[in-house]
Backbone:
């Protein structure tokens, strides 16, 4: 693999730096546990320099015209597209997702820069009438300042550009804290931003081990120079910061569903990135009339998936990200088994394939007391639950503190509308499970988050509204 974009240092104020201690942490290939390389481990004090640089850079950057910012974002987008083969391999190597998915994520990540380079020029203000004759208003949207951005390992490229794109478009400057399991791809993207000509101090990135993450999060949330913190990650960590969090997506199959669509939707919604997406479907509620046939078809799909080397184009299931992730999947499956769940297929580690592999699994006989019904499994496991009525399906699908994505399949148009309106989630997939794009808003209800990324809404987090009242002589 070409290594031209691989950096071990962090990027602060236009320089590649090693941090004061010049300490390193190791990055592993989840396929076989081999060490990919070592990355400098920065702490909160090192990160403070990045915050200061972003603060200094904010004035000049926010005063550039939107057209100038747009052109730089577009150049960055073009450079990413030119480097897809290298970036895709780099992502697959450290994250473990199959190579086609790795390249797909790079294109997905680039699409946010394309979209926000255009949106930069569409930050419109307005005027509103006061209830008096001698006063006028101008409502302006202005960038909030420095954004502290924290991204997860499961979509480290897509989640970075989905935040950094709108932040830079709005006129904010940024400090990114990259995820410890996948630090190379975020720094590679920042290197390309540098090559695109984004000025020094505007986009900074710090890499760190897990032990320094909390300190950096603390700095972001307490330093007065940081105006907003945008976090994507687990509910457990995010509760303390702010909020693009985990899901627990139900997928409902009604009696009238087209099963071929259910199967292709399951492949994407359940098995993409080995089930490690925030919008991964987890609990499959299947209506009694179609239950046997649907379980048969979904089982066939689950059994057909090939585990293996994610660089091999025939692989559809790669490793889990790390032993913590694997142990969580195993614990939840074992808990379900011990409480009476039936394993239709899979159900255990695939040690013959590699240390971090778990078999694609389908469980039935799921009951309320099983943790796997309520906790995000983040792995290739489907829970199947039979239901009788539409009302029961909606009640059970909504019976969760999380509300990121909900999917359902039905050929009854009235039912589609009823269910779409009744499901409590920020993203609804009706006869489809592809719910993310640069053009549309992404985010959750309830504990799954606050705010939206993507689309025209994605800029709002990085803009603040100023109302100017102007007294005039009439
Ligand atoms: N809603 C979304 O858009 C979305 C997208 C992707 C992932 N997710 C969720 O992310 C989770 C998977 O990611 P993860 O395991 O990396 O999550 P995580 O919460 O463990 O870590 C996410 C990021 O936060 C950092 N972090 C950890 N502890 C911190 C602390 N105390 N202060 C500041 N930062 C801290 C990590 O280093 C990492 O960069 C899943 O729950 C998934 O559903 C949500
Ligand atoms: O993990 C969550 C992000 C997945 C996506 O944006 O499609």
Residues:
């Amino acid at each position: 693999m070409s290594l031209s974009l691989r950096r071990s240092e962090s990027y602060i104020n236009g320089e590649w730096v090693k941090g004061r201690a010049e300490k390193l942490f190791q990055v592993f290939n989840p396929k076989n546990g081999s060490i990919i390389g070592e990355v400098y481990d920065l702490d909160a004090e090192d990160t403070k320099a990045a915050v200061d640089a972003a603060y200094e850079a904010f004035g000049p950057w926010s005063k550039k015209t939107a057209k100038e910012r747009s052109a730089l974002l577009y150049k960055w987008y073009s450079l990413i597209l030119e480097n897809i083969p290298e970036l895709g391999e780099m992502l697959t190597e450290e994250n473990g997702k199959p190579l086609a998915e790795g390249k797909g994520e790079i294109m997905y990540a680039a699409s946010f820069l394309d979209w926000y380079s255009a949106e930069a020029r569409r930050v419109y203000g307005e005027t509103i009438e006061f209830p008096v004759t001698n006063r006028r208003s101008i409502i302006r949207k202005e960038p909030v300042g420095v954004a502290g951005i924290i991204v997860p390992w499961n979509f480290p490229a897509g989640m970075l550009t989905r935040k950094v794109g709108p932040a830079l478009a709005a006129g904010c400057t940024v400090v990114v804290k990259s995820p410890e399991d996948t630090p190379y791809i975020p720094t590679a993207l920042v290197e390309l931003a540098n090559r695109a000509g984004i000025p020094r101090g505007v986009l900074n990135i710090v890499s760190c081990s897990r032990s320094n993450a909390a300190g950096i999060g603390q700095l972001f949330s307490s330093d007065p120079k940081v105006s907003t913190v945008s976090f994507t990650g687990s509910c457990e960590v995010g509760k303390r910061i702010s909020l693009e969090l985990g899901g627990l997506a139900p997928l409902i199959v009604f009696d009238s569903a087209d099963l071929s669509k259910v199967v292709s939707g399951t492949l994407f919604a359940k098995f993409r990135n080995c089930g490690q997406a925030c919008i991964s479907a987890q609990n499959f509620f299947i209506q009694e009339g179609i239950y046997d046939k649907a379980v048969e078809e979904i089982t066939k799909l689950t059994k057909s998936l090939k585990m293996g080397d994610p660089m091999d184009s025939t692989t559809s299931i790669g490793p889990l990200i790390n032993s913590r992730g694997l142990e969580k999947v195993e614990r939840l499956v074992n808990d379900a088994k011990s409480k009476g769940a039936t394993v239709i297929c899979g159900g255990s580690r695939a040690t013959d394939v590699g240390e971090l592999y778990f078999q694609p699994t389908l469980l039935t006989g799921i009951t309320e007391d099983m943790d796997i019904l309520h906790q995000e499994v983040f792995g290739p496991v489907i829970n199947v639950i039979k239901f009788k009525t539409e009302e029961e399906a909606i009640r059970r699908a909504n019976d969760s503190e999380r509300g990121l994505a909900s999917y359902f399949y039905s050929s009854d148009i009235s039912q589609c509308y009823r269910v779409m309106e009744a499901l409590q989630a920020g993203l609804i997939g009706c006869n489809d499970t592809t719910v993310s794009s640069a053009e549309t808003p992404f985010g959750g209800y309830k504990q799954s988050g606050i705010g939206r990324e993507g689309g025209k809404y994605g800029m709002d987090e990085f803009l603040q509204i100023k109302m100017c009242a102007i007294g005039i002589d009439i």
User: Anything to note?
Assistant: Residues 249-437 form a domain with the Aldehyde Dehydrogenase; Chain A, domain 2 fold (CATH 3.40.309.10). The CA atoms of residues 62 and 86 lie 32 Å apart. The pocket of 4-oxobutanoic acid (ligand 2) is lined by residues 154-155, 158, 277-279, 436 (CB under 6 Å).
